[in-house]
Write a structure and sequence with these properties.
The protein is globular. It is built from 19 helices and 13 strands. The longest helix has 16 residues. The protein folds into 2 domains: about 220 residues, Periplasmic binding protein-like II (D-Maltodextrin-Binding Protein, domain 2, 3-Layer(aba) Sandwich), CATH 3.40.190.10; about 200 residues, Periplasmic binding protein-like II (D-Maltodextrin-Binding Protein, domain 2), CATH 3.40.190.10. The two termini are about 25 Å apart. It holds the Pfam family SBP_bac_1. Keywords: Signal, Transport.
């Protein structure tokens, strides 16, 4: 049997296992039509502040209207809900917002309708390279890049001045941890037991020149590379911060919101976080943005280019939709640079295309400083996506199980982690 055939059977069995609960109820749901006979396309979206609803309205036509349904906040819960519905061949999903780690899994299981080649070509031409890579599996773009997020290093200008650290030059994790510890500050990160912590681990390993896994085309026989010099350097950074006075008190449970609160508090010094965080302060504390500085993501190894996290959303069309052609037409509209910019202006989740930054009379330039928008785009060019594989959920779960809490990370963690994940992949251990 071919590797791809083995992957498809294995991936489908895994997702079908998720569907045991609630499969009959979800199968009863179907796509709707309004009383006027107009088709209703249902788009399952990740929670946001209204950007997806706005572009859904923009792309509704006389032929069809696009209605939105909000998925759970947690990315893995989003995956489980969609997987259950799709495994049941539920036609009630037409379009869905999919996190990059789950793109390969959904495609490999046969849940996504193929994107016409002409639309693939158009999206490839307009999208950032990182966005295209995250949307591609087995040589084909399987979701349409909608928005692309990245993390930068945010810092308080007043604190950097007090600490005497030159933020005009690239800085390392060691440097910002030391600067914060010596001057009564905190380094805010995301290290709860969830996907956001794995994002940090991946960025640290990538920044040390490594990868979590390679040869992913071999399926379960991919090459895990966590137990490596890069993995050792990543573990050293996490352990250093966790045992430093620069560690926030809530480090082991911190997600994006908690990190943002730490940064906005009296001990705020440095923070890594996504693009939308910039707009979280000014309405609450007028003038706060004047003290916010921004720089490239910290280097894991001094002199070695950092690899910031890559995040975002791709739009997939369900294979089981009763309106695949209409849904593809809608996706083309939703992912246009103009609508990417509309979504970015409302949510702070930046466009997946360079053209999206300049659409609609440069609306983003009125909200963000030009150097910050340039930094976002530079960071996207240098970003490191998480490993593209149908088995990412197992890898992520294994990393969370063995690298958490951060205070327990040691020099043996990379080896322990790799062995455990290999056992999970081959059915010798359970998450």
């Amino acid at each position: 049997m071919s590797v791809s055939g083995h992957l498809a059977r294995r991936g489908t069995r895994r997702i079908w296992a998720l569907a045991v609960t609630g499969i009959l109820a979800s199968a009863a749901l179907t796509a709707c039509s309004s009383a006027s006979g107009e088709t209703q396309l249902t788009w399952y979206i990740n929670p946001d502040s209204g950007g997806q609803a706005k572009v859904a309205a923009n792309c509704s036509t006389d032929k069809y209207k696009i209605a939105t349904q909000v998925l759970p906040q947690d990315a893995n819960e989003q995956r489980i809900q969609l997987a259950r519905r799709l495994a049941a061949h539920d036609s009630g999903i037409d379009i869905m917002s999919i996190d990059p780690p789950f793109t390969a899994e959904f495609s490999n299981a046969g849940f996504l309708a193929p994107i016409p080649q002409s639309l693939q070509d158009k999206l490839t031409q307009q999208s950032f390279k990182g966005a295209t890579a995250a949307a591609t599996w087995n040589g084909h773009m399987v979701v349409a890049p909608f928005w692309s997020n990245t993390q930068v290093l945010w810092y308080r200008k007043s604190f950097a001045q007090k600490a005497g650290i030159d933020m005009s030059q690239p800085v390392t994790w060691d440097q910002i941890i030391d600067a914060a510890a010596k001057n009564g500050g905190k380094v805010a990160i995301q290290s709860n037991k969830y996907e956001g912590y794995v994002v940090w681990i991946n960025a640290l390993i990538s920044g040390a020149g490594g990868e979590i896994a390679t040869d992913t085309q071999k399926g379960l026989d991919m090459k895990l590379e966590i137990n490596s010099p890069a993995g050792d350097k990543a573990a050293a950074v996490i352990r250093k911060l966790a045992h430093s006075s620069a560690a926030p008190a809530d480090m082991s449970v911190a997600q994006e919101g908690q990190a943002g609160s730490t940064f906005g508090g009296p001990q705020g010094a440095f923070m890594v976080n996504w693009t939308y965080i910039y707009n979280s302060y000014e309405s609450i504390t007028p003038g706060f943005n004047k003290d916010i500085g921004y720089a490239l993501y910290p280097q894991t190894v001094q002199g070695q280019q950092a690899r910031p996290p890559y995040g975002g959303i791709g739009l997939g069309v369900s294979k089981y939709s009763n309106h695949v052609d209409d849904a593809m037409q809608a996706v083309e509209c939703l992912t246009s640079p103009e609508n990417q910019e509309v979504n970015a202006e409302i949510t702070g989740n930046m466009p997946a295309s360079q053209a999206g930054y300049a659409a609609n009379n440069n609306a983003l330039q009125k909200t963000y400083p030009a150097p910050l928008l340039q930094l976002f785009q530079q960071s996207l060019d240098e970003a490191a996506p998480r490993t593209v594989t149908p088995y990412w959920s197992d890898i992520s779960g294994g990393l969370q199980a063995t690298w958490h809490p951060p205070a327990d990370v040691s020099s043996s963690t990379p080896a322990t982690s790799q062995t455990f994940i290999d056992n999970v992949l081959h059915g010798r251990s359970l998450l």
